[in-house]
Amino acid sequence: MSExxxxxxxxxxxxxSIMAKLNIIDEAIKKIETKRIEDRYxxxxxxxxxxxxxxxxxxxxxIECNRENPHYADPYADLNMIMSVMRPILSDNDLSxxxxxxxxxxxxxxxxxxxxxxxxxxxxxxxRIIPSKNDLQTYGSNLQYNKRYQLTSLxxxxxxxxxxxxxxxxxxxxxxxxxxxxxSYSIKRxxxxxxxxxxxxxxxxxxxxxxxxxxxxxxxxxxxxxxxLPQSKYEAAINHIRYVKDKxxx
Length: 250
Hints:
Blueprint: H1 3-38, H2 47-57, E1 67-68, E2 75-76, H3 79-92, E3 95-103, E4 109-117, E5 122-129, H4 136-155, H5 169-172, E6 176-178, E7 184-186, H6 197-206, H7 211-220, H8 234-249
Antiparallel strand pairs: 1-2, 3-4, 4-5, 6-7
């Protein structure tokens, strides 16, 4: 092989090596860009969407609870009730909502709730679906539960007499603290203090003429008299009474 041919071969190898390295760099950039896009929770611009959502909010109507939890008799608005109220309002403002599940590489399932504007702009929320049991019924129940939460959060919706708007009581139940002697206790124990005399009077005032509801309240909270109602359940009891009274008056 001549010196010229040897030099040309070396140049070709060097060029191939450079091109290979450039391809690797290009692929790495594409992966970074793809991940950057996947990690975004909104489109590059959201000005038209923001304006449309602000206009839509002016037309928001009260969303009433239409169902009760079968175990605790707590009222709630199901997904169909929420969407029945919100769908025409969103449509009138060129807005729409999609909710889909995404299976990640680690095996987790993510619920993606996205608010779209007709311009193509969007914002979204994500929640991991973690059912307590590995069966379709439990999965579906957990999915629907999360759909309601994500939807109300994304659209800025509030539900009338929402029993979960409880000042963090449900979350406090699982919080542990240490006593000076080292023993631990749940904050839930603090909530067992009974309501005050003034609160008893307020309950009796709300329940005047609604004796059956009073019995339901005592049965629901497993108490013999209203004076034994825990402080932490006072707001829930008042809201439930008003919810029942509103229903009966309609």
